[in-house]
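Could you help me review a protein record that somebody else here produced? Here is the record exactly as it was handed to me:
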Amino acid sequence: RAASVILSSEVNAMTDSQQPGFKTEPNRIWLPDEKGDMLAEVLFPAEGANIVNITHTFVDDSLRGRGIAGKLMEAAAAELRRQGKKTKLTCPYAVQWFPRHPEFSDILYK
């Protein structure tokens, strides 16, 4: 599935109802700027055949307060569900995000 690239100027103009175009790679979803440099990312390395661990979420200071981390987490959760994977949570942001989004509780590794 091809991911669209969104320019940082487009992120600045987004409303809460719009979703940024993230790039999806194995075990990573990220947002590039117009030069291809990373502005935001969530990492979820594999820990088994169908188990990953959400270990890290980063959002550049220029985008903080715009809900990008939550959109990254939602994109990661949807992608993991699509792949039939379960996730552990060691990223502090993920640890607090998932209890507020019980619609994704089915992908949590127990």
